[in-house]
Input
Amino acid sequence: MKISRWSLPAISAALLILSFPGFNLWPLAWVALVPLLVSLEKCKPSRAFLVSYLTGFLFFLGTIYWLIYVTLPGMIAVAAYLALYFGIFGLLLSSAYKFAFSPVRTDVGKYSLMLYIPAAWVVIEWLRSNLMTGFPWVLLGHSQAFGNLPVIQIADTSGAYGVGFIIVLVNAAIFLVLRAAAGKKKIPVIPIIVASLTLVVVLRYGYIRLNNIFTGEPMKVCVVQGNIPQNKKWDGDFCEDILKKYERLTALAAEERPDLIIWPETAVPGFMESDGALLSRVRSIAVSAGTPLLAGTPRETGGMTCFNSATLFSGEGAIIDTYDKMRLVPFGEYIPFRNKLSFVEKFAHNPIGDFTPGDDHTVFALSLRRALKSDGEGRKLTKKARFSPLICFEDIFPELSRRRVAEGASILVNMTNDAWFMDSGAPYQHAQCSVFRAVENRTSVVRAANTGLSCFIDQKGRITDRVGAGGKDIFVEGYRSHEVILSRAAAFYTRYGDVFAYACMIFVAVFLAFALVTARKMRIKTG
Output
């Protein structure tokens, strides 16, 4: 293989990296895979796997580099594992190229390849998102979250996978055109027409959805961003300082008379329910504010069982309900197969937790008191606000959000702590996932993060407000109040989930089966 063939995967990886935060050059995603597609032509399956694996490994090193702040060996291991899915993509394309570019194939084979390539991409992203513990982070569609609102609107039918499909479709069309030009053949018109018409339809749909008005009861929510350094968060010497900071910020937030105040994940510096003094302190903060408070706290029950939880207090200090995090971070909050993999702790910069996953998709119900004037008389109404927390990286899993919205949540609340990853692209990559959860379910998403990004995302995926100071929105302390809409839009994706991804799986399977049968017939004829 020529040296240039190995440089092409590196170019694709670089373009993909630049498409995501902190570069956020999202238009590059629309051409990023072209070098890889070129390099895979005429590759044997083993080499196709290696070429694609190299692209994936470099891409993940450049996007999840922030794991180095937790563990360097772990970061390399995660990148090496996730790159396997890129390798599978190379294998899928190797077989398809051989079929589509066979001398006896008609143009139909080449043009069906244009649909096969993005469908194969959807398959490997779905596998990456669901196999093992699943890691649907920096999916290709996520690159468009902050800069291309019209295109991401199709996520309410196809999820993030549909956005990725469109991006890869354009890459495939460019590849086919360049291939024809390089071979001094007639430029194929059909790929250009298909890609152009698809984009027109997607953009048209996007602009229609962006012009929709989502109606519902307004609810004023305030998020508090404590900006507690990770090295102080669990140091007992700083417990009082942390509580005083949240007490001060909560008192300031209460002056804006919100319906709900939200603290980030594990904002309470201790096991609140087993520490009477700590519980009393948090209750008093809620009572002083006179506002319901949703607080992130570790929770310990009998038998030393520990949960990462979110506890909802009333304005009178009573505990209304508690949610225990269901999807724990592997090698962060627990060690999978601890008996065999306990040695991993030796390579971690910080101790690995031993939390237990919750088992209930909790939807909180909060009473909102409203004043209503009718016939010159004042009356008070009580309305119910139903919302559900997603702790830490739970918002990256679309099925969790779908389930909560299907069970009645009108708002999703992501309570997180990305302080582990320092001043990196991690908080913004994480927020991109929240943007997609908002669009997929046509539901407002409120993010309360220890160090940022704490923000409000509407049903169209727009970040409408955020905590910030001095031009920065991460690693600053503060609070922000904003009105969100309690909307129940009943999106297609909420109801039916990943049917688009399943359709892509079927298409890929049928294409490969047809290719194998055809190849066998050709061998019989020539034999």
About this structure: The radius of gyration is 25 Å. The chain is about 45% helix and 15% strand.
